[in-house]
Request: fold
Amino acid sequence: MNVMYFAWVRERIGVPQEKVETEAATVNDLIAELTAREDRYAAAFADTSALRVALDQELSDFDAPLTGVQEVAFFPPMTGG
Amino acid sequence: MQIRVQSEPFDAGTELNSFAQTRTDVGAVVSFTGVVRDTDGNLREMLIEHYPGMTQSAITKIAQEATDRWALADCLVIHRHGPLKPGAPIMMVATAAAHRAAAFEAADFLMDYLKSRAPFWKKEITDDGADWVAAKDADEDALGRW
Reply:
């Protein structure tokens, strides 16, 4: 699936997006997988209460299933307006 | 309903003058323009990042809800991204309704939701460095009003 990062999450991980091969069942499982990979992921995902997630461009939850999802995006709370 | 996400500047006066001009059942037009604020006198620019795949649809959903809820005759949202200088317009909403209460409330609702639910992130580049603007708890709490 395509995993995207925005704002300081992008800066900490170092790429705006990447293809991730995963069998993760939920967003939390995906975060656990990425966190185990490298320190930069662990740094970005250290406090998920400071993060939001969108699945296929819709805001979602960290316990949401990833079945059929093609695009996951992680970002801090939005500051529009 | 008009939703525009753009890097180019816009002229709020021109936009407002042409807004809802084709409707004769409108008794009230309300507009809000958000401007880059240099709070401490050291802001070089504000960088606005967004999520292109999601921005248009997220704003459309918010604007559609406002239109339905307050029976708006028309609704305009413009939001910029990219590097912006202090004093530059960031975004604008305009609402047109039969009566002013609906137009004011719908504009207020749009602003509350655009702040916390439209995928934009602001970074301030100052003389002292660069920092992402943190979302305020008060902005999230404001959604509870609706």
Q: What stands out?
A: Residues 52-69 of chain B form the longest helix (18 residues). Chain B has one domain: 2-131. Helices of chain B lie at 12-18, 52-69, 100-117, 137-142.
